[in-house]
Hints:
By secondary structure, this protein is mainly α. The protein is built from 2 helices and no strands.
Amino acid sequence: MILWMFFGMAFWGAVLGGGFYFVRRYVRAIERRGTEDQTVVELRARLSTMEELVDSLRADVSRLEDGQEFTTRLLASAPRTGKPSPNDADAGDLH
């Protein structure tokens, strides 16, 4: 009789313990799902901010590129005076 009581207690302990374990996992999954939605919203906001920053950076790089092209054309079209600069004179000396 005591043996059957032991088996009964073991069985119901396993059933209740396993049930508690699965209920706890289910509750945690639901809680995590709620925080994942919040995380996705935060990540989307951060991503849109980064896209705006990249677009503004692209505009700045384009502006700098235009300025560099202008400077290059301006220097290429400038007439050479024939008088060497002081840096050109030093370039030939390799003491």
